[in-house]
UniProtKB/TrEMBL annotation:
Gene3D superfamilies: Hotdog Thioesterase. Residues 258-293 form the ChsH2 rubredoxin-like zinc ribbon domain. Residues 296-357 form the ChsH2 C-terminal OB-fold domain. Residues 197-212 have a biased composition (Low complexity). InterPro entries: ChsH2_C (IPR002878), ChsH2_Znr (IPR022002), FAS1-like_DH_region (IPR039569), HotDog_dom_sf (IPR029069), NA-bd_OB-fold (IPR012340), Thioester_dehydratase-like (IPR052513). It comes from the Bacteria. It comes from Streptomyces reniochalinae. Residues 213-224 have a biased composition (Basic and acidic residues). This is DNA-binding protein.
Length: 378
């Protein structure tokens, strides 16, 4: 799974001698330019950047010791989950480096005041959104059962202001040094983007049909295309031998959504008090608390807001690798779904997509998305 943790990335991580980096669905420091909306103009001085750079080199986390020594059961479990053979010499796979630093469900009170101040300064300047972008690992020596690790973290760097497709902000990189007996065993760098979301793209405002009640919309205004998989007969929808997807939990709070799916309508809730859109369905507004709401049908036009490519662990009903996308609809809400019509390694943030309905099996129909025709053709 491509993610922020290089220790669990396989297939999409870039590997080199003694070093690996795991990309996520977010941007990277080189993916944006310093110029653009919200960026410091050429020749001007960015006072906030000057302040943020003052935190470079300061501790991000207190020194700590791993909760458990490197051990054979954890190595075996990790290898089983990722489908990775246990190394013949019994050592831990190199990309398990971060595993030995994790605190478990109880967590660890290890963040320093300097790191909190840095994030607070960004929040105070309006850069309140955050996305993990990537991590990098370097390996100095193998870890073997019985090794007891210690580690500490520092704020390694803060980038100049960058403009990305998500918005304008600053990349903050922390570095964790892992040691055994005082000697360096490896280094783990973790990078986030603290950003201010950009303005919606022109033409992304809700279209008129989407704001009308489902019963008032003409069939020609509905989102599913004429070639949608849902038009096939049940006997043609899926092979009978293929494992079924997990069944959704339907209750009184979300039954209306699934009734919409059955009618080929992607319904979201709009608060009657403050007009905030919300999804998934909830009994009350998370913006103003009002319990009053109306169901509104989405026109089904959106863009890929984020995504992840799934490699491991395998699930019987899915054929890896495949993309799981977070789609931002034109009406202002987001939904997690699958993306059709484009190879998973060609999915990109900002890619236009259109709603379809897919029969996953003879008893389960789901809303999915297909890359817009101009994207699928490129």
């Amino acid at each position: 799974m491509s993610g922020t943790d290089g220790s669990t990335s396989e297939g999409t991580s870039r590997a080199g001698a003694g070093r690996t980096s795991g990309p996520t669905s977010g941007p990277t420091p080189g993916s944006g330019s310093a110029a653009g909306a919200g960026s410091a103009s050429p020749g001007s001085r960015d006072a906030l950047y000057d302040l943020l750079r003052g935190y470079e080199g300061r501790p991000a986390g207190a020194s700590a010791r791993g909760r458990d020594p490197v051990n054979t059961p954890m190595i075996r479990h990790w290898c089983e989950v990722l489908g990775h053979p246990v190394p013949p010499d019994g050592s831990a796979p190199a990309t398990m480096l971060q595993v030995w630093t994790m605190a478990g469900l109880a967590g660890r009170e290890g963040r320093t005041g300097a790191y909190d101040e840095l994030l607070g300064a960004l929040d105070g300047a309006g850069f309140t959104s955050v996305v993990a972008t990537d991590c990098e690992q370097e390996y100095a020596q193998p870890l073997r059962p019985g090794d007891e690790i210690t580690f500490d973290a520092l704020i390694e760097s803060v980038s100049a202001r960058k403009t990305t497709k998500l918005g304008t902000g600053y990349f903050v990189t922390t570095r964790m040094d892992v040691r055994v007996g005082g000697a360096t065993a490896g280094t783990h760098r973790f990078r986030i983007l603290k950003y201010r979301p950009g303005a919606p793209a022109p033409g992304s405002s809700p279209s008129t049909p989407s704001e009308r009640a489902p019963s008032e919309r003409a069939p020609s205004e509905r989102a599913p295309s004429e070639s949608a998989p849902s038009e096939r007969a049940p006997s043609e929808r899926s092979p009978s031998h293929k494992p079924r997807r997990p069944r959704p939990v339907v209750n009184r709070d979300n039954a209306g959504f699934w009734e919409g799916v059955a009618a080929h309508e992607l319904l979201f809730q709009r608060c009657d008090a403050c007009a905030a859109p919300r999804f998934p369905w909830l009994p009350g507004c998370n913006a103003c608390g009002s319990p009053r709401w109306s169901a509104v049908e989405s026109a089904g036009h959106g863009t890929v807001y984020s995504y992840v490519v799934m490699h491991h662990p395998p699930f019987p009903a899915f054929d890896p690798p495949y993309a799981v996308v977070l789609v931002e609809l034109a009406e202002g809400f987001r939904i997690v779904s699958n993306l059709l019509g484009v190879p998973c390694d060609e999915v990109r943030i900002g890619m236009p997509v259109e709603l379809e309905f897919l029969w996953a099996d003879d008893a389960l129909e789901l809303p999915v998305f297909r890359a817009a025709p101009e994207q699928a053709a490129t």
